[in-house]
Amino acid sequence: MTPPATSATNGPDPFAPDTAANPHARLTFDLDVDLCVIGAGLAGLSVALEAAQQGLSVAVLEARRVGWGASGATLGSVMPGYGVPIGDLIERIGVAHTGELWTLSREGMAIVRARATEETMPGIALTTGALEVSNVDLGDRLIDRLQTLGVDFGTAVEGWQIERVRDMLRTNRYFHGIHFPDAFQLDGRRYVRGLEAMARRAGVRIFEDTPALGIDFSGIRKRVATPNARLRASDIVLAGNVDLGAPSPRLTATLLPMWRAAVLTEPLGERLADAIAFAGSIADTDGVDHYRIVGGDRLLWTGPETTFEVAPKRLEGLIRRRIAALYPQLGAVAIAQSWSGAIGQTVHGMPQIGELRRGLWVASGFGRQGLATTAIAGRLIAQGIVHGDQRWRLFDPFELVWAGGRIGRVVGQGVSIVERRAAMTAGLLARYRERAAVRSRLREERLQAANSRVRSAGGQRRADAPPRDRAEPGAQDARRGEPGPIE
């Protein structure tokens, strides 16, 4: 959902309402097209745009408004990889297969970067660089990860030592970091609107307030029922996330709904620059916090995930406490806006991309995946339909898995809480060990200094004493109580 407007004292508000967004008409007449996309979020618009650019006639059905759900609340992060740690991917599908998927994610980044220019999407506010920081001392694990990312998968990546991380982020909560210089971030809501405009220019017809009530798969031409009309298409793409509903209950049941609250602070002035000197996005390895500077002196910060919808206003206090814990020098931080959107999280953590049955495609499960994955999904599906490209089969190992219904949501919430607390506890222990190591080092240094002073003082005393071999001839005998030589 699009956050409400607020005033900014330093430049344009990055979340001001887009007055250029015009509502689309409902579908009120029967229509025949080559491709019907159900869902006008990032994935649906990406598929529609790619397909139209390759010559297909395309219609998009949206039950509400373009980008009204999670796509309208995205933070706009564009990074290589997926929502699953690279080590877990390698363990599941092997190095070679993981490498091919990694290459696709980088292709997705290139697609987004080519689209997201100030000329095509004014106000996109693109910034470069992403920093993944650790809550604990990674040690040799940092070297192993850099080897995998940089050497094995050819990703531009830099390892940052603790001193450099803390020079950029003035907090003792972080240790090592991995910098992705080619990653970037943008105004996610403007990107959604930019995609919409590009799709319309390419000939895509978008119908809002037009839910798909059901799909008839019989025959070569599939029929989609809507409240006021029917649509026929050779191919259908399900891109409706957790709100897809009637067209495919089976798909909806494979997604665990997750709401993640986000806030935008009031302008913080110069004190923000004194706390954070990194212009890109910052995320910790445990997924506790994700934030970046927007509008010059404001923080865009995401908080905890919940499997049940909670009013974001209720989570503002929690996020304020997190900001204060990391950056106490910021003082009391005022929140200008808060909002949340529901994402669809799969059981295996990877997106669902491919053909479910002949002519029925899916582009779903993009929770935690980033914009690059929605972009490459659009290209893979469009090329699969038009040219028979089979690269989408790289996602075959990540099949549809039931998310467990309401019980799954309860379990998921419990796991999220446990993981978050475990990450915070691990960070607390790491900082305790660091302080203990510092105290031990200081004690050792003081002991060495004291020993040095003792040695120096003893050496000085010896230097001041008269040499024993220069004493008077009879002095040594006198000290021993013996007579001197008789003359």
UniProtKB/TrEMBL annotation:
Residues 34-383 form the FAD dependent oxidoreductase domain. Residues 449-487 are annotated as: Disordered. Pfam families: DAO (PF01266). Residues 461-487 have a biased composition (Basic and acidic residues). One of its GO terms (molecular function) is oxidoreductase activity. Keywords: Oxidoreductase. PANTHER family: FAD DEPENDENT OXIDOREDUCTASE DOMAIN-CONTAINING PROTEIN, SARCOSINE DEHYDROGENASE-RELATED. This is FAD dependent oxidoreductase.
